[in-house]
Amino acid sequence: MIIVKNSRDVENSTARRRGRPPAFDRETVLSAARETFWAHGYEGASIADLTAAMGITPQSLYAAFNSKADLYRAALEQYRGLGADTFSALGEPIDTVSAFERILRGSAAIFSAPEHPKGCMISTAVLNCASENEVIADHVAAMRRRSLDAFAARIERGIREGDMKPETNPRALARFLGAIIQGMSVQARDGASLEELLDIAVLAIAELARHRA
Hints:
Layout: H1 7-18, H2 26-44, H3 47-54, H4 58-65, H5 68-82, H6 84-87, H7 96-112, H8 134-161, H9 170-189, H10 194-209
Helix pairs in contact: 2-3, 2-5, 7-9, 7-10, 8-9, 9-10
């Protein structure tokens, strides 16, 4: 049997095919992109990898996020939210050593969590890249510098409030802590367990405690 559709049916069908793509939850697809970038890095994650993980078309990706670079920036911001509770310790009314102990232990937990790719998405991101991706590398490096600034500011606060020795070098100690966190990220990527990362954290906390007033 041959069914002949009237012209209105054809027009409605065409309109559905050419209309806006199905709606999706931005945070959900961004989370999928975040996990893909986290696992493969900026250059290692292709548009095909991203759209497969996000469950959307390339056209929808560009319509929602403008470009791969902008998608990556958005994914980095979402990633920062995962550690918000940990890094909020910098602003809380606790002593300096306790604040960084929470950051180091929390970082160990995030870096080794089984539900996510291992390591830190920011600490070791885009260390080497093609020249056309230098803007992205600069963006991530700036994020790392802001973290060091925040660490140094917290140590300076500890000196002012009297829980850290006045002769402490805030910038050097901040860089030491940043280096420990970056190293923990690499160790996690290489298979270090939560317990092994916590052992590193304990040593770093002991060094930090040497500067306690």
